[in-house]
TrEMBL record, chain A:
Gene source species: Robertmurraya kyonggiensis
Protein name (database record): BMP family ABC transporter substrate-binding protein
UniProt keyword annotation of Signal present: yes
Position of the signal peptide: 1-20
Pfam families (UniProt xref): Bmp (PF02608)
Domain ABC transporter substrate-binding protein PnrA-like intervals: 53-332
CC per GO annotation: plasma membrane
Region (Disordered): 24-47
Length: 380, 309
């Protein structure tokens, strides 16, 4: 009897665990889907065109305060603009699970946004199977007839953040915690360094790789290792604010990535690049409604509004803010290009000749550090 | 010298959450119950701390809440393993799965909110003149001290008191203990719950001291490392102290190697702690190969009074 009860208890635990864990489709949207199915019969009579059904696949949770948070803000904008309720699936691991989730969504949605680099192949595979569904994949490089890709020019605000860091640093030692040695992170660090050097030629940026997007304890370790070296500005290309918090404890200026992180270190926060997907998502959905959508690889910057600089922390001096704003104008105008030669690599070899600018494909595949970065990119 | 001090400080702050969990695990295993629920209990401890602290902003209440929540999970594990005599491995895994999922569910509303917490530090100015120790231990937060204190108290409890002998007996030969009039179930319940509370404190430390905001799955596998460290520490709380700090130090060392710009890939540096664990385990195993095994003999075996051996 006791054994049976024991097995039952364990089963119960497993069931509870299964219920609360893993990928959770928001019930809210599921409900409205049912409703919309019931009412479509009447709606088609009054409305000429049916609104598209939109779905989003997230790598994390909207509450991460970083990457997924920004995508979810964009989703809210889409929902408000078109009066729809889109479906979201959170916590989808990159890999076979992603393909299953995307395929499930493809069966009853018109547009699917897959918002992490690792969804590229799963999205591509499903796009082949469902030619009538549109797929939008963030930060990748594969496109298809019915699959577009998009990315923000994160290096533009990173350059501005670098200017702030260069001006704030008193000992010219700046730290940078990078997630993974990927082109996206590398060109951000390079732009950041160039920005710092533009106002402070002696500035050096020490880079440490945490090899994780999202592990606060490890990120903190990485941050502390730099703080122990005596850096007086610390930037983080990470999804959690752990590094900024570690810097704040020592009264060191901190910067994050992806979204406004003021609240985590109100006294010592500087600013950082943020990604603003909202307007673009609205454009995409609108173009689908207008039937003007076509597959492309989008790489948008300040001008198109896909990247922004977070509001300055309250203790950042006005002169720093002014210098940054002035440069920002030049970037938006197109009178200033960040990756414009002469630019040297760490060993001092010229990588971009005087007067030349780097083409987008070269930016998107960058695998070298500029002069002034202290750190290594692991060989592949 | 300075590097050594810095590294030791980093080792303590990275090692403390591990140490709490290892000590909890030792209490569990010493009475013969394997608890693989560490990871889940840590997460529940962390999310409870976060929610309670945001509500009350009271460190002491938060501390109690973390203890209470983890004790609850410990009670479930104890009930399933001791009273129902179910498989301990399965129950532990269920607790971890449950804790991971349920903490994510509970934490949805508080995810990303920064905790305005400041943990009091203990300044020991009289330590200052001692060269190395003064700098490392002169300004630790109270919970790091608590952890060291718990390890020392546990050592005396386990090896210098008669309760400690009973504890060992219950884990090695429950039937003998039973004959001697020691309540096997009572001892097991008590220590499983107490151990789980320590695991909960590990989560509490992670979120209150280490990284003050709730992030889903923030333990990132440290519970499993703690389970391995129990064996590494040979079920001895003082060894556990050394092991946890050693492991924390290795963890911190990886990033410092990167800064030296040595030509070792950072992926490799990240493996150092795990490789070191295997090497030390091999070394210890080889050195003790002629001695009787040290783990509690009744580990993982439910006790059933009527059963004959």
């Amino acid at each position: 009897m006791k054994k049976v009860l024991g097995i039952f208890m364990i089963l119960l635990l497993f069931m509870l665990a299964a219920c609360s864990q893993g990928t959770t489709k928001t019930s809210e949207s599921a409900k409205t889907e049912e409703k919309s199915e019931e009412t479509t019969g009447e709606a088609t009579e009054t409305e000429e065109k049916e609104l598209p059904k939109v779905a989003f696949v997230y790598i994390g949770v909207p509450g991460d305060g970083g990457w997924t948070y920004e995508h979810d803000q964009a989703r809210k904008l889409v929902d408000e603009t078109f009066g729809i309720t889109s479906t979201t699936v959170e916590n989808v691991p990159e890999g076979p699970d992603a393909e299953r989730v995307i395929e499930e969504l493809a069966q009853d949605h018109d547009i699917i946004f897959t918002t992490s680099f690792g969804y590229m192949d799963p999205t591509f595979n499903v796009a082949q199977k469902y030619p009538e569904v549109l797929f939008m994949h963030a930060t990748g490089y594969k496109t298809a007839e019915n699959m577009g890709t998009y990315q923000g020019r994160g290096y533009q605000p990173a350059y501005l953040a670098g200017i702030a860091a260069g001006m704030l640093s008193l000992n010219n030692k700046i730290g940078y915690v990078g997630a993974f040695p990927l082109p996206e992170v590398i060109y951000t660090i390079n732009a950041f360094t160039l920005g710092a050097q533009s106002v402070n030629p002696d500035a050096e940026v020490s880079v440490v790789w945490s090899n994780t997007w999202f592990d606060p304890t490890t990120e903190r370790q990485a941050a502390v290792s730099l703080l122990d070296q005596g850096v007086d500005v610390l930037a983080n290309y990470q999804d959690s604010p752990a590094g900024i918090q570690a810097a704040a404890e020592r009264g060191v200026w901190g910067m994050g990535n992806d979204s406004d992180m003021n609240e985590y270190a109100p006294e010592t926060y500087v600013t950082n690049p943020i990604l603003n997907w909202g307007p673009y998502y609205v454009d995409v959905v609108q173009s689908v409604i207008d039937e003007t959508w076509k597959s492309e690889a989008v790489f948008y910057g300040f001008k198109e509004g896909m990247v922004e600089l977070a509001p300055f922390g309250k203790n950042v001096p006005q002169e720093v803010q002014d210098a940054v704003e002035a440069k920002k104008k030049e970037i938006v105008d197109g009178t200033f290009d960040i990756f414009k030669g002469p630019i040297y690599d760490q060993a001092g070899n010229i990588k971009i000749n005087d007067g030349e600018t780097l083409a987008d494909p070269d930016i998107l595949s960058m695998n070298w550090f500029v002069k002034g970065v202290k750190g290594t990119i692991p060989a592949e | 010298m300075d590097t050594a001090i810095i590294l030791m400080s980093a080792a303590i702050s990275a090692g403390t959450p591990l140490l709490f969990a290892v000590l909890g695990g030792i209490l569990n295993e010493k009475v013969g119950v394997i608890n693989l629920g560490t990871e889940g209990i840590m997460l529940i401890g962390a999310v409870t701390s976060c929610i309670v602290f945001l509500q009350t902003e009271n460190l002491f209440l938060t501390f109690l809440a973390a203890l209470l929540a983890s004790a609850g999970l410990g009670l479930i594990h104890a009930f399933v393993c001791i009273s129902l005599r179910a498989n301990q491995i399965v129950s532990g895994l269920a607790i971890t799965l449950f804790g991971t999922g349920f903490s994510a569910y509970l934490g949805k509303s508080v995810a990303g909110s920064a905790l305005p917490v400041s943990v009091p530090k203990i300044e020991l100015s009289w330590l200052e003149p001692i060269p190395f120790i003064g700098r490392v231990f002169g300004n630790l937060d109270i919970f790091s001290w608590l952890c060291i204190f718990v390890a020392i108290v546990m050592y005396f409890y386990m090896y210098k008191t008669s309760w400690g002998l009973h504890l060992k007996a219950v884990g090695d030969s429950p039937s003998t203990s039973d004959v001697m009039g020691v309540s096997v179930d009572g001892y097991r319940y008590f220590h499983v719950i107490l151990g789980s509370m320590l695991m909960g404190l590990s989560g509490f430390y992670l979120i209150m001291v280490y990284s003050p905001n709730w992030i889903e799955g923030m333990t990132a596998g440290r519970g499993w490392i703690a389970i391995a460290l129990i064996i590494f520490a040979r079920w001895n709380p003082l060894y556990a102290l050394a092991c946890a700090y050693f492991f924390g130090g290795l963890d911190a060392l990886g990033f410092r190697f990167q800064l030296l710009e040595v030509a070792i890939p950072s992926y490799f540096l990240k493996m150092i702690p795990y490789i070191a664990t295997i090497i030390v385990l091999m070394f210890v195993g080889w050195k003790n190969r002629h001695k009787p095994p040290i783990e509690p003999k009744a580990l993982g075996v439910p006790y059933f009074r009527e059963q004959r051996f």
